[in-house]
Write a structure and sequence with these properties.
By secondary structure, this protein is an alpha+beta fold. The chain has one domain. 26% of the residues lie in helices and 35% in strands. The protein contains one helix and eleven strands, in the order H-E-E-E-E-E-E-E-E-E-E-E. Strand 1 and strand 2 form a beta hairpin. The longest helix is centred in the N-terminal third of the chain and has 53 residues. The chain is elongated. It starts with 11 loop residues before the first helix and ends with a strand. The mean pLDDT is 80.
Length: 207
């Protein structure tokens, strides 16, 4: 189609070319925005996972420092200050750098509700034999390991029967009022909407 001299406007071919170019530009812009969003989501996911892994390592480091400190006698045998439940744990550990009195620190790990979701918390205080196992959170120093916690699961591996030589070892949902520490503690930390689960197994070397 040709255009007469002096005639204003566009030909049909010119209009089709312009529409095609606009469609191509719009597709490129939309693709760029989508790519940018995907990169941002990937980076945010990697950052969240990195922070969660750091929290799991910190939790494992705390539990791995558990120390066999004797508590009250039960049935003529000493019971260690190590009270492990399915989602909470109180124990005595070697303090980092042995800065606390005697190099020992009483530690409790638990999940508590917060203003923006559940938080994985640690409460600590210098170990004192006269108050061991009886301190309230108000008398301990509180630290948040991470927020956005959906669940915390703890299981304990050790002898099935306490004080019985050569008793076969197995996994337990609780470990309390025993004369020895568990050999292993398995940690299952679930964050966010349950889409991020971090399993960690810690060996307790102090016997």
């Amino acid at each position: 189609m040709t255009r007469a001299r002096g005639e204003d406007g566009f030909t049909l071919v010119e209009m089709l070319v312009a529409v095609a170019l606009l469609a191509l530009i719009a597709t490129g812009i939309a693709g760029g925005v989508q790519l940018g969003r995907a990169v941002w989501q990937r980076d945010a996911g990697l950052e969240r996972r990195s922070a969660a892994e750091a929290a799991a390592r910190a939790l494992g480091g705390l539990i791995g420092a558990a120390y066999p400190v004797g508590g009250a006698l039960e049935g003529g045998r000493p019971r260690l200050l190590f009270a492990g439940q399915g989602s909470a744990l109180r124990f005595v550990a070697l303090s980092e750098g042995y800065a606390q009195v005697g190099g020992l620190i009483e530690t409790e790990i638990d999940v508590e509700p917060g203003p923006t979701g559940s938080r994985l918390m640690v409460w600590t205080a210098p170990y004192r034999a006269e108050t061991a196992g009886r301190l309230s959170h108000e008398n301990m120093h509180a630290s948040e390991i991470t927020g956005g916690v959906r669940a915390l699961g703890l299981t304990y591996f050790g002898p099935a029967e306490d004080g019985v030589p050569h008793s076969p070892s197995s996994w337990h949902n609780a470990w309390a009022a025993r004369s020895q520490l568990p050999t292993l503690v398995a940690i299952r930390l679930v964050l966010g909407d349950g889409d991020l689960t971090l399993p960690v197994t810690v060996e307790l070397v102090q016997r």
